[in-house]
Amino acid sequence: MANFSKSRVPQFSVDVYQNEYLPEGGREVNAIVTVTSTGGGTSGAAALLAGAGASPAYIPAGQGPGPAAAVVIMVDCSGSMEYPPTKMRNAREATAAAVDTLRDGVAFAVVSGTHQAKEVYPGDGRLATASEATRTQAREALYRLTAGGGTAISTWLRLADQLLARADVPIRHGVLLTDGRNEHESPKHLRDALEACAGRFTCDARGVGTDWDVKEVTGIASALLGTADIVADPSGLAADFTQMMRKAMGKEVADVALRLWTPVGAEIRFVKQVAPAVEDLTGRRTEAGPRAGDYPTGSWGDESRDYHVCVRVPEAGVGQEMLAARVSLVLPDPSGGTPQTLSQGLVRAVWTDDMVASTSINPQVAHYTGQAELAHVIQQGIEARKSGDFDGATAKLGRAVQLAAASGNADTAKLLSKVVDVVDATTGTVRLKAKVAEADEMTLETRSTKTVRVKK
User: Fold this and answer.
1) Which residues pair with 168 in a beta bridge?
2) Alpha-carbon gap, residue 347 to 14, rounded angstroms
3) By the 8 A CB rule, do 220 and 228 touch?
4) Which of 20, 32, 201, 297 is deepest in the core (most CB within 10 A)?
């Protein structure tokens, strides 16, 4: 039987935003589900959710504030990291900064990645326990790193997985830095490694410079429920790594799943995380009993995320209503017992002959539908530009400018302005720039899925 503790527990709440009214015969129900985790010992704000539909997470002992975490940092040490020489130096300094950010008691290791993975610190298949002494030893080991060899990222991930598996902690996290393409193994090797590691640890991935492949790096982060970004100038690595590690240290609860139950005749069309970034979770469903499925959300600290749930329901007549879906946050029992329900919300369907009610679009649903389209058209526009389809690129990126302006996504609008000249943002009238810096295009592509929250 798992040992559950009521101390230092975060609280979770679920809020559902939707237009529940459908016309006669209508079948598609859309809802935005906002999940908020507060107070897990890091902010002291658990009381903010008390009495507001939130449930405390009676998490297994050790899964709360404190050193119940393990981290492996994977540093690209392939030959390309030597050019320019400052790149390797910046990578060493960034990794040292990340190590300095580790809380006392956190288990950690550093891995050197080339066409094979090697342990840099502490070695011998072990994890070190963060302390003033071990952080100093790790920094000393880092400064002996040199560049040379190829790139086979699957070996880095598999070694990280082996090391993290040695830690009996709920939060297992990886940080991966690369400056090049995964050229010294087949794509299948990387896909297989990601499939093997998914659900075992989360991973943030960073590309430094402009010689790496955006789809590879974002694919790693997506598969392992982490973040992806570009650090075009290697001198910015230390600040980025420090911020990234601080966020990782703020995680309190691992393996939370969004569980959706639907009645007979209803089915889930899709489930997408839509804030803080767009991530399609539909294909990651695992069955969880009759008419229920779990969608992974990874680790949580004090934060809030939004999910777009689309349900197809049976046809019904005016005046009828039904529960379209029950949304639950669940935490698995490490001993294999019944998962713990952290919070719940309901998605409803009501059929009406009131045309105004049934044709109204919920503001949250409308906003995030636009944000998902924004991410999609940016990626389409960049692909069209790369392939020489300049008319197609202009049309897609023009639509992106229009959507970014309408939704108030100023960060994405700024990135778009480095790729196109904006004539009229309201109508999406743009001209492709004749010359675009590679770093600007890669930054737009990497950050295309980042969204802004709806103004409530």
Assistant:
1) none
2) 11
3) yes
4) 201
**Contact 38/303 with Cβ under 8 angstroms?**
no
With CA atoms as reference, report the closest residue to 242 among 69, 98, 72.
98
Percentages of the chain per state (helix, strand, coil), in multiples of 5: 35, 30, 35
| Residue carrying the six token digits 């050197």 | 112
The answer to whether residue 60 scores a pLDDT higher than 90 is no
Residue 26 has pLDDT above 80, yes or no: yes
Instruction: Please give the angle made by the CA atoms of 339, 175 and 448, to the nearest 5 degrees.
Output: 90
* CA-derived radius of gyration, the chain: 23
200 in Cβ contact with 161 (< 8 Å): yes
Angle of the 214-223 helix axis to the 187-197 helix axis, nearest 10: 20
Phi, psi of 450 (to 5 degrees): -75, 135
Note the pLDDT tens digit of each residue in 97-133.
999 999 999 999 999 999 999 999 999 999 999 999 9
Whole-angstrom Cα distance, residue 192 to residue 50?
A: 43
* H helix or E strand, kind and range, residue 405: helix 390-407
Give CA separation, 37 vs 60, 300, 413, in Å. Answer: 17, 7, 30
For the cut 60, the answer to whether the pLDDT of residue 55 exceeds it is no
3-state helix/strand/coil string of 186-252 = CHHHHHHHHHHHCCCCEEEEEEECCCCCHHHHHHHHHHCCCCEEEECCHHHHHHHHHHHHHHHHCCC
Among the listed residues 433, 255, 222, the one whose alpha carbon sits nearest the alpha carbon of residue 342 = 255
Which of 61, 33, 51 shows the shortest CA–CA distance to 328?
33
